[in-house]
Amino acid sequence: MKYGEFMVRLRKDGLRHIYLLAGEEHYYIEKALEALLGGLFQTVQERQDGLQKFQGDVDPAVLAGSIEQAPFFAPQNVILVQDVPWFRSGRKGSEGKEKEDKDKRLSGIMQVLADMPPYSYVIFVVNYNVDKRRKLTKLVEKNGQLLEAEPLRPWTINEWLQGKLQALNKELDRDAYAYFSGAVSMMQQISLSYLDKEFDKLAMFSRDRRITKAELVEVFAGVPEVSVFALLDAISARDAKKALLILHRQLADGIYFTVILSLLTRHVRQLWQARILQQQGVRGKALAKPLELNPFIAERLGRAAMQFPETVLKKAMLQLIDADYYLKTGQAGEEVLEEAVIGLCCNQAD
User: In total, how many domains does the chain have?
Assistant: First the structure.
């Protein structure tokens, strides 16, 4: 189950004796683990006395013994097992035999997990996507709970954002939301741990309940991918003067040309894709899925794309490819970025 449902189940149904926290989004795993440990231990001393930790490919027999051993200094045994490979998919070609061998090796621990002592709790934590065909995975799902912590993408961030704002008792005004959605769409990978800390900072920075765009820009402007968003926004509006002003400011602030070039190329590609999709009848928020963008941003990108003739986008893409080569080989300076920006903003169809 996803993080939101996992936390709701934890609050409503109480603690289970087996948990598997799995996936690549460390932020959700850390939050879920802290919630579990907070529910199992009342004090720091209890946690120190009652928490056992195993790392890596632990001997199943040793783990089984720890589960069955009665607690001495705490009301229960809580066993944290990190990075075991037991839930992984098998290698292609040998998957069937490998799975069978692994299941035999784990048969003893599976018997213990199927009939847990009332005083023991086991929390497995793995930073990979588990194989749900494994007998052990099925056993955990049947007798406990499985958290699938998938990395967040720009088009799926709203659930996290609303939850975070609610926890802070804050809200974004319309311009701030548009800016945040667009800025996040620039990020190839989203670090929720980073965003979480920045929003905590933002909550202290903002006096009113409603956070404005200016406040959001003040906090996030130092992130290269976010600051480049302002440049791309100006290009989308085909405002050459504003785009060049922002470009010069970013270069003066020390943003490396490769960051600007990479995001600029991606933006031109998205504009081109949006234009082609709209010619095929895919419009508005329906652009979100094929472009892998937040629906709000996809709709906005679609409107901007129609202002760019296809020949202009094609020429800009070729310019950016040349710029990449000339800049990396030292045959040209930052003026090639200026030329690409001017071409996008000012060129008309041939």
Answer: 2
Residues 308 and 329 grouped into a single domain: yes
Which runs of consecutive H residues, i.e. helices, occur in the chain? 3-13, 26-40, 44-50, 60-68, 95-105, 107-114, 135-143, 158-168, 174-185, 192-205, 213-220, 224-236, 240-252, 257-279, 288-291, 295-305, 310-328, 335-346
Rounded to 10 degrees, the C-alpha dihedral 43/140/92/61 comes to: 70
Structure tokens at 13: 């149904």
The reply to whether 208 and 124 lie within a common domain is no
Spatial distance between the Cα atoms of 184 and 195, rounded to a whole number of angstroms: 10
Closest CA to 272 of 285, 259, 258, 290: 290
Whole-model pTM: value is: 0.67
Q: Are residues 118 and 25 in the same domain?
A: yes
Query: What letter would DSSP give residue 151?
Result: P
pLDDT digits (tens, 9 = 90+) for 3-46: 888 998 998 888 999 999 999 888 899 999 999 999 999 888 88
CA distance 153 to 5: 18
The CA distance from 88 to 125, in Å, is 12
Q: Which of 284, 269, 295 is nearest to 177 (CA)?
A: 295
pLDDT digit string, tens, across residues 200-235: 988 888 888 999 988 888 877 666 666 677 788 889
**Residues 177, 92 share a domain:** no
Supply the range of the domain harboring residue 122: 3-149
- End-to-end CA, the chain: 53
